[in-house]
Design a protein that fits this description.
Length: 766
């Protein structure tokens, strides 16, 4: 009976595909099945018509003609690219943007090639297209999954209106090393939070239906372990154990796959001696087999070619063999597949089935995007004009920007600022900066379009506001506009800033990193405030201690002096287009901050990697009052600000923490409740966090692991009971064979407003 039913569905699917019908979206599983089969059938029927040249062409991704996001390729002339486009040797392009430009390349693919297969048009839509949200690390500090999804939706809506149908986001690399410039692009250090954020972003980009005009295919990157680059140095080796790989690195990728992400990008690093672009273990065994991922894997920029520089392939030919066999389906700007793959198949060295598998995956995404039904669906200039930069998007990015701000310290309730009668000195090189708050990765947005802190604060007109830069953060740029030259010599503005600060009621200082000091290719060995900013801060402090320090930065910084001396510190990241408005609204209390750090702030760079979910070690404490325990002799073990930390203008009290039961068996659902009360003077939000510790394991377990959180709004004086459930999903871990297991034993459970929480209870799992 089931068989017969199945056959009818297949017959219907063949009929639909034969006549090229688009099956309408219908609820109900049968029509869904027909729709899926219909796409598969359409892919098959197209592939039967394709020559080997045309198939390999689909595996070739060329960069466009203006924006370059990697080393300039040796072979990449525009002439050659157009030639290849016309021959049908290009399956996708990146960094072609704007409906007019996209339409032009799409027209060549559709109207001038033999089979008229449309192109995928990829772009690094990392935190927005033109209207920018906060950088992803900042947004992750909101712990607000709906806001994060909304932000990706805005990005997808604007990008799709500009002709783009595929984003190279989200970056879901977990990282514990803020020296690595790309931490700004990710969700921070924790796999649980990172997984939730990965899903929210995928959902935001891809929407409910990929065929919708404002949905674009997402890309989980960089598969895998790029965030563990040794010493935080960009493009470096990675050497980690299986436990870290399975328990820390892979979960956000799995979450993205489970959320239906259509594509994965591999990465530049090697993992335990195998450059991951050539890793069959990652791309085939794990991703395509164990996880059953049906989309395709794009290489990172020329990473197939880089197998040669890693010393893993002796030439392009061998690089093509290794990468194609390993499951890298699409060659980004590497010129390897397009040159080598046809011959390798003809010579019987690479099986045609490998090419077929890759092409099938790529075509399927094109069908799912609806590109075969209307290749110009993203190319409507009227829509482009109306959608990009519209007021609704500005409101949306302002909303997420406010939610991303983290109040690190607020001694004596210096914040919020009084709205009247105050003399405020606004000091610092980033105070009036309209460019740095846009952060890294903002190719399609215009320079200097962020609202500065100065502009945001000027809207509060009942105070007097005087602005002085104090020092320049940068002196200029090198050949690339993104390469900034930090000012370490010009102190001309310090005296003037100090004079202004002397008579102010409050000094607001905006310090931090230039927008291009983080991001790809921007690792740092120091996490101090760059240039002369520390000197400026101390000079101002010497005359006025009432300082609110607003940080603008793309990574955790080491600000130990400030944390000790400055009464109020606000982590204002790089918050995108509406940055200054968001910061001003928080400073003046029109928005009560609720952000929590997604990444630990170290005391100094020597503590790195420092992260909350570390192991205990065999000597965790100084029990005998001697030196033989796990510590440094020059700085304490604790971080400056822990993961999950963030204050509010109100206060929260946690009481009646209860595990409902004490003895459980593996598989039980364990209920945990806690009463949280807003005990302060403002309405506010709190991220209630739940951590566990598995006390003994066949593989040692972290001292704490985040296993639940809820962002809850509380009115002044309000109490709410927050409930969590712990199941096998939260209580187990991957063993060194990559198998998920749950072990009986004793567990501790913690709840609170940061990973530092001490509120604890315990249970036993039998
Ligand atoms: C290299 C980066 O690693 C990757 O994340 C990005 O998507 C590509 N370049 C394309 O710009």
């Amino acid at each position: 009976m089931i068989r017969r039913h199945y056959k009818i569905i297949i017959a219907a699917a063949i009929m639909f595909s034969f006549f090229g019908f688009q099956v309408n979206k219908k609820s109900g599983s049968e029509m869904e099945v027909v729709k899926i089969l219909s796409i598969d059938q359409r892919v098959d029927s197209l592939m039967q018509k394709m020559t080997l040249d045309e198939k390999v062409g689909q595996m070739n991704l060329y960069n466009g003609f203006w924006d370059v996001t990697g080393p300039t390729p040796e072979a990449g002339s525009a002439k050659l690219k157009y030639e290849h486009l016309r021959k049908g040797w290009v399956g996708a392009m990146l960094s072609v943007r704007g409906t007019r430009n996209v339409k032009e390349v799409q027209r060549i693919a559709v109207e001038e090639t033999r089979l008229g297969i449309p192109l995928l048009i990829g772009f690094d839509v990392i935190h927005g297209y033109k209207t920018l949200s906060p950088i992803p690390l900042a947004e992750s500090a909101s712990w607000d999954l709906q806001a994060i999804e909304n932000s990706a939706r805005v990005a997808a809506t604007e990008a799709s209106a500009a002709g783009i149908n595929w984003t190279f986001a989200p970056m879901v690399d977990i990282s514990r090393d803020p020296r690595w410039g790309r931490v700004m692009e990710g969700g921070g250090e924790d796999p649980y939070l990172g997984s939730k954020i990965a899903s929210a972003r995928v959902q935001g980009f891809q929407g409910d239906d990929l065929a919708d005009k404002n949905s674009i295919a997402a890309c989980a990157k960089h598969f895998a372990a790029y965030g563990f680059s040794e010493s935080g140095k960009e493009y470096n080796s990675v050497d980690i154990g299986t436990s870290t790989l399975y328990n820390t690195v892979l979960p956000p990728f799995k979450a993205a796959a489970d959320s239906g992400v259509k594509t994965f990008m591999n990465s530049f690093n090697e993992l335990n001696g195998i450059p991951v672009t050539g890793s069959e273990f990652l791309q085939r065994d794990i991703l395509k087999e164990a996880w059953n991922f049906e989309g395709f894997v794009v290489s990172d920029w020329a990473s197939i070619n880089e197998l040669i520089f890693w010393g893993h392939a002796k030439d392009k030919r061998q690089a093509a063999i290794i990468a194609s066999r390993a499951g890298s389906d699409l060659d980004m700007e590497g010129y390897v597949y397009v040159r080598e793959l046809v011959k390798l198949v003809e010579d019987g060295i690479v099986k045609e089935s490998i090419v077929d598998d890759a092409v099938r995956r790529i075509l399927k995404v094109k069908f799912e995007l609806g590109l075969f039904d209307d290749p110009y669906k993203y190319c409507d200039p009227a829509n482009e004009k109306e959608v990009i930069g519209n007021a609704k998007h500005h409101e949306a990015v302002l909303d997420v920007a406010k939610k991303s701000i983290v109040l690190l310290k607020n001694e004596g309730n210096l914040l919020p600022l009084k709205k009247e009668g105050q003399k405020i000195a606004l000091i610092g090189p980033l105070a009036a900066d309209k460019n740095s708050p846009l952060g890294s990765w903002r190719i399609a947005s215009d320079d200097n379009t962020a609202v500065s802190v100065l502009e945001g604060m000027e809207k509060y007109t009942s105070n007097s506001l005087t602005h002085k830069k104090g020092v320049d953060l940068v002196l200029g740029h090198t050949a690339f506009i993104e390469e900034v030259v930090i000012n370490t010599t010009n102190r001309n503005g310090i005296d003037e800033a100090v004079e202004t600060a002397k008579t102010a009621d409050v000094v607001v200082m905006v310090l931090g990193e230039h927008g291009f000091q983080s991001g790809e290719g921007r690792s740092r060995t120091s996490l101090d405030l760059p240039g002369l900013q520390q000197e400026l801060l101390e000079a101002v402090y010497a005359v006025n201690k009432n300082i609110v320090l607003v940080l603008n930065n793309g990574r955790p910084l080491a600000i130990e002096w400030a944390a000790k001396h400055i009464p109020a510190i606000v982590e204002g990241w790089q918050l995108g287009t509406q940055s200054g408005n968001a910061i001003a609204q928080v400073l003046y209390g029109d928005y009560n901050p609720s952000g929590k750090l997604p990444m630990t702030f170290p005391r100094n760079v020597g503590q790195i990697p420092i992260y909350y979910n570390h192991k205990s070690t065999g000597r965790p404490e100084n029990t005998n009052d001697n030196v033989f325990w796990s510590h440094y002799i020059d700085v304490e073990n604790t971080p400056l600000y822990p993961f999950g930390h963030g204050l509010s203008y109100t206060t929260f009290d946690y009481k009646n923490f209860k595990i409902h039961g004490k003895d459980f068996t593996v598989g039980d659902a364990i209920k945990v409740t806690v009463d949280v009360t807003n005990t302060g003077n403002y309405d506010g939000k709190e991220v209630v966090q739940l951590y566990i510790r598995d006390l003994f394991g066949s593989i040692t377990r972290p001292v704490k692991e985040l296993k639940g959180f809820e962002l809850v709004h509380f009115k002044k004086g309000e109490t709410k009971t927050i409930e969590f459930t712990l199941t096998n999903k939260e209580l187990g871990f991957f063993n060194n064979q990559g198998k998920y297991i749950v072990e009986a034993g004793d567990f501790e459970v913690f709840v609170g407003g940061s990973s530092n929480t001490v509120l604890k209870d315990a249970f036993t799992l039998k």
